[in-house]
Amino acid sequence: MKKTELHPFANESESLQIGELTVENRTDRVSIYGSLDLTLDRPGLEHARRLKAILDLTVAEMEKAVLPDKITLTAPETVKNPFA
């Protein structure tokens, strides 16, 4: 099984894809979006294992932390397009 390339909540720069599913790392969240078919074959099993590894790491990091009841997500900062 391929080792995960994501360190949940550690930085704002890691991202990976499993099929059409994207997992993006942030310091205050891990965003998962897209679509992933877990087919009943070897590639499907590999995708399931990679997804499980990412979720296991994410849960482990959350369990180590002192969590607030709820965080407030800040809106992304809009910057002027330097190429315009």
Report on the structure:
This protein is an alpha+beta fold and 84 residues long. It has a domain at 15-64. It is 27% helix and 19% strand. The protein has one helix and three strands, in the order βββα. A three-stranded antiparallel β-sheet has the order 1-2-3, with helices on one face. Strand 1 (15-18) and strand 2 form a beta hairpin. The protein is flat. The protein starts with 14 loop residues before the first strand and ends in a 20-residue tail after the last helix. The mean pLDDT is 90.
Low-confidence stretches: none
Estimate percent helicity. 25-40%
Report the portion of residues in β strands.
15-25%
Question: Strand-and-helix sequence, N→C?
Answer: EEEH
**Main sheet attributes: strand count, strand direction, barrel closure:** 3 strands, antiparallel
Shape: flat
**How far is the N terminus from the C terminus?**
44 Å
Nearest-angstrom radius of gyration?
15 Å
Across the major sheet, the strand order is 1-2-3
What is the average per-residue confidence, as pLDDT, rounded to a whole number? 90
- Tell how many strands the DSSP assignment holds: 3
Number of helices: 1
Structural class of the secondary elements? alpha+beta
Pick out its properties.
84 residues
List the helices and strands and how they pair.
Blueprint: E1 15-18, E2 20-25, E3 30-35, H1 42-64
Antiparallel strand pairs: 1-2, 2-3
Summarize the structure.
The chain is an alpha+beta fold and 84 residues long. It has one helix spanning 42-64, and strands at residues 15-18, 20-25, 30-35.
